[in-house]
Design a protein that fits this description.
202 residues, alpha+beta, Glutaredoxin, Glutathione S-transferase Yfyf (Class Pi), Chain A, domain 2, 2 domains, four-stranded mixed beta sheet, 4 strands, 9% strand, Glutathione S-transferase family protein, GST_C
C-alpha cells in the first residue's frame, strides 16, 4: 500500500489524485506542514522538511510530481504512456514546476491564501501577469486537444492540473483562455479528482 505523508489540503492532494487515477490503495499519514515537518522523525523521512512524502515498500520519495510519475508508472499506460509521449510527460511535469507553479503560487498567496493584512497587491498582480503568460502557452497547446498529449487523460494532465488547482478553484480569470478553462474543468471533475477533492475541500 502507498503511504502518503501529508494532508489533503497541501501538495499531497496531487498524489492522492494520482493514486485514485491509478487505482492504487493508499493511506494518508497526517503530517502538518507547519509543525510536524520540523521533528527529527519526519526529517529522517524527508530532510527537506516538506510534504508530501511517499513511502512505497523500500522506496521513499519526495517532490509531489516525482511521486506522481512513480504512481503512474505502477499503473502503466495509458496513465503513463511510453515512447515520445513519455518524454512529453516529463516535459510537462518540469514545465508545471518551473513555469506555472511559481506564478500560480505568487498569485494565490497574495490573493486568497495569506491573511489580508499579509497580502501584497503588487505581488498578486505580478503573479497574475506571469501566470497569464504561461497559460497562453497552454491555451495554444490545447488547440484541437481535449488533453495535453492529444489523446486521453494521462499523468501529464494530472500533474499540471494539480499545480493549477488553486487558481482554478479560486476563480482566476480565464475568460480569454477558454481551452485552458475547459481542460481544467474536464480534469478536475473526473471521478478520481472528485474523490481527492472531497478530502481537500472538506
Amino acid at each position: 500500500m502507498l503511504r502518503i505523508h501529508g494532508i489533503p489540503r497541501s501538495r499531497a492532494f496531487r498524489c492522492i489524485w494520482a493514486a485514485e487515477e491509478a487505482g492504487q490503495a493508499y493511506e494518508i499519514i497526517p503530517v502538518d506542514h507547519r509543525t510536524d515537518v520540523r521533528t527529527p522523525e519526519f526529517r529522517a523521512v524527508n530532510p527537506n522538511g516538506k510534504i508530501p512524502v511517499l513511502v512505497d515498500g523500500d522506496l521513499t520519495l519526495f517532490e509531489s510530481l516525482a511521486i506522481n510519475l512513480h504512481i503512474a508508472g505502477k499503473a502503466g499506460a495509458p496513465l503513463l504512456p511510453g515512447g515520445d509521449d513519455h518524454a512529453r510527460t516529463l516535459q510537462w511535469a518540469l514545465w508545471a514546476v518551473t513555469e506555472a507553479e511559481p506564478q500560480a503560487t505568487l498569485w494565490s498567496y497574495n490573493t486568497v491564501s495569506r491573511p489580508p493584512a499579509e497580502r501584497d497587491p503588487a505581488l498578486a498582480a505580478a503573479g497574475a501577469e506571469g501566470l497569464r503568460a504561461r497559460l497562453a502557452v497552454l491555451e495554444a497547446q490545447l488547440n484541437g486537444r481535449d488533453f495535453l498529449l492529444g489523446g486521453g487523460f494521462t499523468i501529464a494532465d494530472c500533474n499540471l492540473a494539480g499545480v493549477l488547482y488553486s487558481p482554478w478553484f479560486n476563480k482566476f480569470p480565464m475568460d480569454d483562455l477558454p481551452r485552458v478553462a475547459a481542460w481544467l474543468t474536464r480534469c478536475l471533475e473526473r471521478p478520481a479528482a472528485l474523490r481527492a477533492r472531497a478530502l481537500r475541500e472538506a
